[in-house]
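WARN retry 2 of 3 for item q-0093 after timeout on previous attempt; input resubmitted unchanged.
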Amino acid sequence: MVGSSTTGNRTMASQQRDNDSETDATGPSQRTTSRHTTGRPSTWRQIVLKVSLATLVTLVSAEGMLRVYVALRGWTPNCYAAQLHLFRPEPIAGYDLRPGFRLRSGVYSVSINSLGLRGPEVNRTKPSGVRRIAIVGESSAFGYLVSDGEEAARRLEKILAAEEHPIEVINAAVPGYNLFQSIERFREVVAPLKPDIVVAYLGWNDLPYVVSNDPGAENHRRRNSAPGWERWMGHSALYGFTVYRLWGGPVRMVPADFAGGEPTTAGIRQFHDNLATLAKQVQRAGATLVVCAQATAARPDVSPALRSALGSDAAKQADAIRLGEWLHRTLADFAAERHLTFVDAYTQIPPTTEMLADYVHLTTAGEERLAQLWADALDADVSDVSESNLGYDTRSVDDRLHEAGREATISDTVQGH
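OK item q-0093 returned
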């Protein structure tokens, strides 16, 4: 019994030692694993925080360096994505020009005054003895591809001022606008400034609804600006450089793409109605409307260098040319029917790369040519003197043309007899 008990005790002791040995072998590993498992979430949070901080520091540094570079070049931080700040949301047209906007880049300089018009500041009250000429239209009237002072509106003002005419030329054009939006802009912004003459240089952006069976649709009446988050991001020079310079982001300053096909009955009617509405609004404001057909590459004699700008193949190019000819005829007929002054930039400015940078936007030389065409057409009107109104004849161009025609008829009758 004693031997058996002793043997059992030895066996139990041996088992205990084995158990202790196993515990010593496995215990540290298990404790280490436990510690690692407990500390893993904290480690990952630290890694994410460090990466986030490093990324933020890198972005801020890149933004700072880019802004320094831009400033040293004399540019504004919005130079890479100017369109995000040029436009602001507007409830009816979708967007308009942001008052006080400034752009300086290696290519362009653009200034929008406090009234939301391109060019120098304009008094809300028209100065005594000054004639005001307002230009309404889209990007081609705005002077999309030229800097301040080189657009046709400013050149026209300089030409007429050199001829000692007290003149103010208001550039009320907005890139991307069609007649729907231009009518609203005239009513709300231009008419209160009391223009004497309104030059309508437009039409190309109206073609998408002219060829549509639903020309009154909402997408034709308004075009939205960039979403709010992107306008906010646009304050970053780095965002503009990355998205618009490196990645070639969407450009919203350009006019709406022209559509192929033929003008529809509904589209033609809508275009005529819009022209008539603009004419009525101008007349109601006490001004005279001057219609100008746009200079475009959509002509049969377009230079080979510009033909590709009309479309990727011969069929699309032919469609664009037909639409260009239709637009020219329609504007000319509208002006003739209403006895309005018509300026034919479509035929007077050749479709070459010297005059056009693309299918509708003028070069510096083209802007100069357009300004001279306007000046030639308006010179007699702005210089017509009447003692009854501070040296100016307050009658409209239509009245004076009618008067001149009546006097010529009378003279011919007298000479005939």
